[in-house]
Amino acid sequence: MIYEMTVQVRVSNIKQGQSWYETLLNKEPDFSPHEGFAEWQLLPGCWLQVAEGIPSSGSGPIRLGVADLDGERDRLIQSLGIEKFSIHSREDVPVKWATFSDPWGNGIGLFQYSDQQAVQKRIVTLLGRHIQ
After folding, report:
1. How far apart are CA 31 and CA 60, in angstroms?
2. Tens of pLDDT along 67-94?
3. In CATH, what is the architecture of 5-127?
4. 46-73: pLDDT as tens digits
5. What contacts 24+ positions apart, CB below 8 Å, involve 12-16?
6. What is the rounded distance in angstroms from the CA atom of residue 66 to the CA atom of residue 72?
7. What's the whole-model pTM score?
8. CA nearest 59: which of 103, 108, 92?
9. What ranges do the domains of the chain cover?
């Protein structure tokens, strides 16, 4: 039985990497046990680790669900200086999505469900509460 999940990306400079991921995730790390390592709990039992090391070329993307994909894209372009990236959709797929890279080449993806009632239902299921 799997009950938890951890994903790790590597960055060549932990201070720059931690700062970049703090901005991406809108929060400071939940756990920094030693130099060269930071970890965020994204959802209960779902962790993202950023470790100093040699980045793996073409890793990811790590896909993150968001409530407002267009708004998140605008925020990331402004706050992280990311080049404008395209948002994709298909009639037969219940989400729209976008993919970009962090400065170390790690793939990051964002997605948004088309049905906002489904989004709120997922949030309540995962977090036990509504969010704005």
Report:
1. 22
2. 899 999 999 999 999 999 999 999 999 9
3. Roll (3.10)
4. 999 999 999 887 777 999 999 899 999 9
5. 12/52, 12/53, 12/54, 12/55, 12/104, 13/52, 14/38, 14/50, 14/51, 14/52, 16/103
6. 8
7. 0.85
8. 108
9. 5-127
| Strand 95-101 versus strand 88-89 pairing type | antiparallel
Largest CA distance in the chain: 46
Distance CA 107, CA 89 (A): 19
**Residue that the structure tokens 């962790």 belong to:** 47
CA distance 9 to 25: 14
Amino acid at 80: L
User: What DSSP designation does 31 have?
Assistant: B
Is residue 132 over pLDDT 70?
A: no
Model confidence pLDDT, tens digit, residues 4-18: 899 999 999 999 999
Q: β-strands 107-113, 62-65: how paired?
A: parallel
Q: Which two tokens mark 80?
A: 């992280």
The predicted-structure confidence for 27-39, as pLDDT tens digits, reads as follows 999 999 999 999 9
Nearest Cα neighbor of 104 from 6, 24, 16 is 16
